[in-house]
Amino acid sequence: MKTRLAQLFCLCLLALPCLAQEVIRVGVELQPYQPYSDVENGEYRGYARDLLDAFAAEHGYRFVYVPLPVRRLLGDFLGGRVDLKFPDHPQWNADQKAGHAIHYSRPAAPYVDGILVKPQQLGQGVARIRLLGTQNGFTPWPYLTEIHAGRIKLIQANQIESLLLMAINDRVDAVYLNPRVVAHQLRLMDLAEQALVLDPQLPHVEDHYYLSSIRYPQVIEAFNRFLEERSEQVEAIRLRHGL
């Protein structure tokens, strides 16, 4: 029995370097979403890049980042054309994921999604919102009942900048986005960060993004250990990106 266990242990040790030398394709979102991530001149960057690079360096993994539109990213992930997916969440596209054995990491990045309005519109409730803007690929979970009932019409766009201008110019009544992402984009547009603010009285989502994989559950397990054992390093990366 001891001999058998020793053989298995040796096989595991031999397998680890092989995986480390293999190129692992990380599917990521093409759309700009700083401080979490964006793609500039084909280069993936932001909090997610720094976090995943730090993890890969510690374990000797060779990550290649594959930026894709949100809808295509899911299809390529489920079809095995990318090996890891970030960001991901167990609740996202649950119907399309049915039948796939997807392994999710521990929480890797905190986020808040909610309604942002002009400061003078704070506290006016959801009844005033008839046109709600959001980014393609986003699902405004707390407002699906109103959307399906026709009380709110959803307007989607690829660019956050377009959505923010629509809200500032009253072409939509509000936007459903991440307030940190909105503040970052407003700075890039040379606009005041308080031009649009989160209405905390309206329903919003506080959750986390996850790393996921179908092919490499062992990488997800290693990432979980990294998040736990290198928590100070992870926290420093978050603080550097304002998260």
From TrEMBL:
Q: Where is the signal peptide?
A: 1-20
Q: Which InterPro entries match?
A: Solute-binding_3/MltF_N
Q: Which UniProt keywords apply?
A: Signal
Q: Which family does it belong to?
A: Belongs to the bacterial solute-binding protein 3 family.
* Organism encoding this protein: Ectopseudomonas khazarica
* Keyword hit for Acetylation: no
Keyword Signal listed? yes
Domain Solute-binding protein family 3/N-terminal residues, every copy? 23-241
Q: What is this protein called?
A: Substrate-binding periplasmic protein
